[in-house]
Every structure is written in C-alpha cells, then in structure tokens.
Amino acid sequence: NAGVTQTPKFRVLKTGQSMTLLCAQDMNHEYMYWYRQDPGMGLRLIHYSVGEGTTAKGEVPDGYNVSRLKKQNFLLGLESAAPSQTSVYFCASSYRNEQYFGPGTRLTVT
Amino acid sequence: DAKTTQPTSMDCAEGRAANLPCNHSTISGNEYVYWYRQIHSQGPQYIIHGLKNNETNEMASLIITEDRKSSTLILPHATLRDTAVYYCIVRVFDTDKLIFGTGTRLQVFP
C-alpha cells in the first residue's frame, strides 16, 4: 500500500495563478482532509470530506475549493493564489481512530 | 481554537522516559484525548488515544487523570528518533475534525 500520496511535492506560483493539489489514498477510507501548516504553527483544517461526492468547510476554507469525485481522490484548488497561501499543505484520510497523513506539498506564492 | 494546553518545549535524555503533559480542563464527557507527533517536516503520525482509562500500545502510554482535565503521554525509553513535535488533541470519537494546537517540541539528547 502506498498509503496517502500527494502531488506535487513542491510548487512555486505567482500571485493570481491557479493550481490544483491532488491527494490519493489506497486504503478505501471514507474520510479525507486538507490541512495547511504555517511556520511554527500546528495544522489547520481547510476542507474535509466524509465520502465520495461530499465536501465540507473546516477552520480556514476561504480562498480554496475542493472536490471528491472519486473515493480515493481529494482535490484542493486555489483559483487565484495569494502570498498568504504560502504554506505546507497536508492531506489525510481516516478510518475511525486514526488519521493517516501524506508527505505534504510545499507551496510558495510570490 | 485548540482545547488543550501544552508546554512549548521539553528535553529528555536518550534511554530515559519522556513524560509530556497536556491540560484539557474543558473536555466534555464524549471527547477523547488523542496524541499525534510530527517528525521534522513530515506529516503527523498517530500515537495513541483514550477516553478515561489509561492506555498503552507499542509506542507509548497515555495516563488520563480521574477528572479527565489533564493527561500525560509517556515514551518509556526515548530515542533520538523520538525528537519531534507532539500534539495533544481533544476530539469527539468518530467525528471528522482534529484541531491542532502548537504542540510540545521534544528534544531527545544523547
């Protein structure tokens, strides 16, 4: 099992550009999540999904959109990137007690 | 906002027990205490969780006070690889969200 994978690992965007981050899991988990982590801080929940075709807002959803068209994939979109969105983005999936995290995507917006 | 309070940092000698405290004085009856850790810049890793009884697994022990207002994570024989940020999280069982605080940075030294 690959677990949770994230694509890409690194990305640099200019202000106003758009991009999509892909999260994939092969554990057949229902729940998936997107977090961001800024330097020196804990993770903050952006959006999450409790199953295929469903999404919901987390703590910091503004400026992001998500889609869960297939159970194994959870996409995070930035329509118009801003410097404040420079961060490390983590995806996770879960079954009951434990969330499994991906390796992260480091995004810089200039 | 995170519902837990943890010390910012702690040190521990290799081979000794690391005891990481956490205060969660506003915890509700149906909320569990979860511990995750984040090594360097990797995705967080689940360690252990509990409701009111003490718990032990292959990684750690969790001691929860009788009034449930605080808990301690114990790494019985810390190694250099246990150097990480440890997050104490209060979570309603089987719900969708983890609210991370800033955690405790544990430094294990030789």
Describe the model.
The complex is a heterodimer of chains A (110) and B (110). The model of chain A has no long low-confidence stretch (mean pLDDT 94). In chain A, the strands form two sheets. In chain A, strands 2, 4, 5, 6, 9, 10 and 11 form a seven-stranded mixed β-sheet that branches. Chain A has a four-stranded antiparallel β-sheet with strand order 1-3-8-7, with no helix packed on it. Chain A is an all-beta fold. Helices cover 0% and strands 53% of the residues of chain A. Chain A contains no helices and eleven strands. In chain A, a hairpin with a 2-residue loop joins strand 9 and strand 10 (98-101). In chain B, a hairpin with a 4-residue loop joins strand 5 (55-56) and strand 6. The radius of gyration of chain B is 13 Å and the shape is globular. The mean pLDDT of chain B is 92. Chain B is mainly beta. Chain B contains no helices and nine strands. The chains are: A mainly beta (110), B mainly beta (110). The interface between A and B is medium-sized, with 27 and 21 residues.
Task: List the main descriptive attributes of the protein structure presented here.
heterodimer; A: 110 residues; mainly beta; 4-stranded antiparallel beta sheet; 11 strands; 0% helix; 53% strand; globular; B: 110 residues; 5-stranded mixed beta sheet
- Order of helical and strand elements of chain A: EEEEEEEEEEE
Strand order, sheet with most strands of chain B: 1-9-8-3-4
Broad structural category of chain B: mainly beta
Bin the helical content of chain B. Answer: under 10%
The helix content of chain A, as a percent range, equals under 10%
Straight-line N-to-C gap of chain A: 36 Å
